[in-house]
Amino acid sequence: MADAAPADVKKLSFERAMEELETIVKRLEDGKVPLEESVAIYERGEALKRRCEELLRQAEARVDKITTDAQGQPVGTEPLDVQ
What is the pTM of this model? Predict the structure, then answer.
């Protein structure tokens, strides 16, 4: 991460949040980050993880499954049960 202020997590797209999260994981796994910075980027990583989970739940809620009649012909859609 550069010296620029990090983007607001709540405004990030799924792809951007995942990209940043992957960068944070790599930096933490490297073990070369000072303790104070490690704590700060870990906290940001947690926020990014929550954002990704939120966006995935929203996407799942929008997914429809196709319903078919007895002959297998599509007749409509209904919400996908993602439990």
Answer: 0.70
